Amino acid sequence: MSALVLEVQGLRTHFFTKAGVVKAVDDVTFGVGRGRVLGLAGESGSGKSMTGYSILGLVNPPGRIVAGSIRLGGVELTTLADRAWRNLRGNRVAMVFQDPMMTLNPVLRIDTQMIEAVRAHHDVTRSAALDRCREALVRVGIPSPDERLRGYPHQFSGGMRQRVAIAIALVNKPDLIIADEPTTALDVTIQGQILHQMQLLCRESGTALIWITHDLSVIAGLADEVCVMYAGRIVEAGAVDDVLDHPMHPYTRGLLDSVPSRNTPGRPLAQIRGMTPSLLRLGDACAFRERCSRAVEACRLAPGVQLSSARALRCVNPLA
Amino acid sequence: MSAAAAPLLELRRVSKRFERRLDLAGRIARRLGANLRETVVHAVDDVSLAVREGEVVGLVGESGCGKSTLARLVSRILEPSAGERLWRGRAYAEYDNRASRRERLAVQMVFQDPFASLNPRLRIVDIVGEAPVVHGLVGRGERDDFVAQMLERVGMDASLMRRFPHQFSGGQRSRIGIARALAVSPRFLVCDEAVAALDVSIQAQVLNLFIRLREELGLTYLFISHDLGVIRHVSDRVVVMYLGRVVESGPTAEIYAQPNHPYTAALIEEVPRIDARHRSYVPIRGEIPSPLAPPAGCHFHPRCPHAFERCRREVPALREIAPGRLSSCHLNDNSCS
Question: ipTM of this model?
Answer without folding.
Answer: 0.76
